[in-house]
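Record type: monomer structure entry
Structure origin: computed from sequence
Chain ID: A
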Amino acid sequence: MNSHMKNLDGRLNEFEKVIGYNFNNKRLLYEALSHSSYANENHCHSNERLEFLGDSVLSIVVSDYLYRHFKHLPEGELTRVRASLVCEKALYEFSNQIRLSDFILLGKGESRSQGNKRPSILSDAFEALIAAIYLDGGIEAARTHIMKFMPDNIISEKKDSNDDYKSILQEIIQRNPEENVEYRLVGESGPDHDKNFTVRVMLNSNVIGEGTGKSKKNAEQTAAKEALELMGYGKM
């Protein structure tokens, strides 16, 4: 085993201790921590596919928890609370609790620009880690991991959050069941370590808002914010 692989193996073992989960298939953890910049340089899989799956696993676990434990809340409020718990800002805070920035694997350029401090990179890796645990140990293992990050005062802490424009827009649109909202990525610019994404929000194929951000999620929020303003809901 060369020095690089030995050092990598040591880092993975240390991270397992931090998160309190030991992988049966360590390759899943390796992939979850591999940013696309690292994957391109080392000819391995990036964590992007795991991020896709982790987003869904996180959503179902949090939705199930809120549904079972907050029976007094209506659907709209459940949606709002869930959104505040799975947004980029929340996932970035969760990632800091497990020192994810110390373990994520980045390419040389991304490392030089301190990509391990970027909320978009860390929140995506946090979702990828959830997927890796799910694939390795099943839904209960993923649930156990996710619930470590749920605050005791979920409602009082998150109820007044008003910066999740996507959920607010969705609540408004859902009042008309025949309406359909879709977010489309229409542009990317900048180098890998400093990308800008442009997203349009569509209502029944009509553009109702456009936004730009450092991550796709941020761009979607900005687009939803513009749509709400254009729909007459004032400055959000």
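Annotation 1: Residues 157-162 have pLDDT under 50 and may be disordered.
Annotation 2: Residues 48-69 form the longest helix (22 residues).
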